[in-house]
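Notes from hallway chat w/ T.B., transcribed later so I don't forget. T.B. wanted the structure written out for a chain they're using in a teaching module, and asked if we could keep both sequence and structure tokens in one place. Agreed to drop them here.
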Amino acid sequence: MLLKSSGGGIMIPNYRFVAAALIFVLITPFLLSCQPKPIVVLRVGTNAEYPPFEYKENNQFVGVDIDLIRLLAKRLDMKIEIMDMQFNSLIPALTSNKIDLAISAISISDERQLLVNFSIPYYMANQVLIAPKYSAVKVEKLNDMSKYKIGTQMGTTGQTYLEENLIAGNILRPEQLKTYGSNRLAIQDMMDGNVDMVIIDDSAAQGYSTQKPLKIVYEISTQESYGIAVSQKSPYLKKINTELAKIIKSGEMDKIIQANGM
């Protein structure tokens, strides 16, 4: 096709320009698709005073839960930022969008599920009562606890169990139950003679027994399941469950547990 110029001459179309424009239109979507995806950084809440699940060693976060969440993040192609906080602050932090998920040996319970969602279970635990090794404390049945002072970490299923079964059942008086911000503080107060026993998960009892002379005086078969907690609006739960199921089925979860001395 010939085009007339304004001066009456013939104007040749600029095919180079047309070709360049066409190439630009065609490759733009391809170039956009090649752009690196933004890296998702998950804000992970934990209470790093719970060996062997989460604690600090040489100023680094270590433990079963820490190894698990790092493996999950790697498989999900995400990064994590671990945020240490009080145990009873974890769920409020989720509901107020201060963290994206919480992993801290959190037992799945009906009460907690009213506020947050949980992943599939990855560990089973029971409650135990611990005392100093040299203590004369003896418990053979629940009623035997009536003569003792018991410590517990605030916001735990151990606290809930004592309140719903011993205090409500008139076995313990409310003043016999003392709450603490962490298990470490509860155990130290027990070692100082201010309470007779501490109620704690059996896995944590095992971890703390490597640090202090402790013994288990009574086990309560609560059969609790640990899960990763997320907000009820979280977009990550399905992906977490998919990869967590693979980790459990492949035996990688067992390897993590064994690597942490359990």
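Follow-up for T.B.: The longest helix spans residues 15-33. Might be a good example for the class.
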